[in-house]
Write a structure and sequence with these properties.
By secondary structure, the protein is mostly helical. It contains five helices and no strands. Helix 1 (3-15) packs across helix 2. The longest helix is centred in the first third of the chain and has 13 residues, at 3-15. The radius of gyration is 12 Å and the shape is globular. The termini are far apart. One of its GO terms (molecular function) is catalytic activity. InterPro entries: CN_Hdrase_a/SCN_Hdrase_g_sf, Ribosomal_synth.
Amino acid sequence: MSQEVVQQVIGRAITDAEFRQQLITNARAACADYELSEEELTALEALDHEGLKAFAGQLDARLSKSAGRGFI
C-alpha cells in the first residue's frame, strides 16, 4: 500500500474540481494513471464525497486548480 500515492490522489481531488468529480463518479477510471492496490481503490471509492467537496470549498482559492474560473 502506497500512502504517498493515495495522498497524491486526495490532494489532487481537493485542489482540482474536475478530477474530484471524476473521482466521485468513477474512482477506478479517475485513478487509472496511479499505481494503486485493490484495497486503495476500494478505500477511494468509499470516500465521503460531501466531506471532500466541503473541505475543498474551504481552501483558499489560490490553492485550487480552478482558481480564476469562478469555482472550486
